[in-house]
Amino acid sequence: MAGKLDGTTAVVTGASSGIGAATARALAAEGATVALFARRLDRLETLAKEINSAAGRAHAYQVDITDADAVRAAVDRVAADLGGIDILVNNAGYGMWARARDAVLAEWRKMVDVNVNGVLATSHAALPHLTAAALGPRGIADLVTVSSLGGRKVTAPPSNVYAATKHAVGAFCEGLRQELAEQHVRVGLVEPGVVVTEMTTNGRNNAPNASAATELGALQPADIADAIVYMVTRPRRTAVNEMLVRPTEQVV
């Protein structure tokens, strides 16, 4: 049975765990060839083996998205190796929550480097390939960024800089949407509430805690992967530009 994404190539950043890994599996299940980007090569290779064993197609690329030169080299290599890039999923992210007077400045900088500069670097490197893909048989290309509920509102004082980075990403994506609409590159933003990932189960002070969440109190990575697949499998005429996904029991 043909998948909705047969013949496409997708790049997924932060693919070594959580939402990124789930998204890679879901895109591959729809027929996309998936390029897996992250720093932890051993995890990427394990995931690629899993996907390939299930009759999918995946390739591992060790990349630190805060290194813009390395990102560009990896993106260009994917395009050369796999015949172009039709879909980019900016998923890599980092979170640390602390009140400003107690915060470590290096943690603020790391959030900006990963959550903002990483998205900028990957998007910038991929745009020529995406606009070229939109001229091909599919007639469309997709750039999806995983943001956060924190990109819409500051949920608590310790989320100050994390929320700031996600607000920045939202503004950047809206600018891209306006710029690329006529070139048929759809730009989507997914804003999850609490999801069970390494970020929400590591026990860090002030971090969202999904460790003891009820079934309806936290999302699973596959839920966000489903949202991303929905975005990139719409008809050419349809662009889903923003999607907020909360757990059923999440109030804030």
Radius of gyration: 17 Å
Strand content: 15-25%
Helicity level, as a percent range? 40-55%
In what order do the strands lie side by side in the largest sheet? 3-2-1-4-5-6-7
Unreliable spans:
none
Assign the CATH class. Alpha Beta
Q: What would you call the structural class?
A: alpha/beta
Mass-distribution shape: globular
Instruction: Look at the structure and name the CATH superfamily.
Output: NAD(P)-binding Rossmann-like Domain
Overall residue-averaged pLDDT value: 94
Query: Strand tally, please?
Result: 7
Number of helices: 6
| Distance between the first and last residues' Cα | 41 Å
List keywords for this structure.
alpha/beta; Rossmann fold; 6 helices; globular
